[in-house]
Amino acid sequence: MEYKEDNTLPKVFICNAHGTIVSDIVTYGAIQGPAGGSISLSFSHRDILAVKKLKEKGIDVYMLASNIHSIEHETLNVIAKTLDVKFIYHDFKNAEDKKIWVNVYFGLSGDDIAYIGSDSSDLDMLYDAADSFIPRDAEKVLIDNADKTCSTIVDRDGGKGVLEEIVDNIYKL
Q: Among residues 106, 151, 156, which one has the least CA distance to residue 124?
């Protein structure tokens, strides 16, 4: 794993919440609950603490989602509330649209953004972000393109302390 040699930190850290759940980033992938009722999720406590450390350093943390159903929206809201991060939903047309929208929405260039993602829709953002990360169990296309996107493959599977690994061992917070 690569470690940051300089002391630069991003202004914004974005976790892609694309797909059914963000199991690839912070949850164990366990969603329980009756249809139409309340849901319960399993989280890595280590990742919750990592988000807290990022925020203590003044780094805004966001979950970004697109093309989700209402139950997924409810689930992501629960995750965002539990992690104390901001949840943004936007209907992106494609990966390039996501990259442009993020830069305009935050008023930042990729130099000020850290991004973690685990599926093919993340390729453009991983390439554009100054710091980009993928869990070791990410989609094969991301693993195969890690060199091209300058992404760090984190030494953990999603939901098993990926954010903790980034915060403690790469940013050294």
A: 151
User: How do the pLDDT tens digits run along the chain, 173 residues long?
Assistant: 444 555 689 999 998 875 434 544 555 445 455 445 565 666 677 888 888 999 999 999 998 887 766 667 777 777 788 778 888 888 887 778 888 888 889 998 888 999 998 888 888 889 889 999 998 888 899 999 999 888 899 998 877 788 888 998 888 88
The residue ranges of every structural domain in the chain are 12-170
Is the Cβ–Cβ distance between 24 and 163 less than 8 Å?
no
| Six-digit token string for 35 | 């249809």
Element (H, E) at 159: none
Q: What is the pTM of this model?
A: 0.82
Task: Name the maximum alpha-carbon separation found in the chain.
Answer: 48
Give the CATH fold of the 12-170 domain: Rossmann fold (3.40.50)
The helix (run of H) or strand (run of E) holding residue 32 is strand 27-32
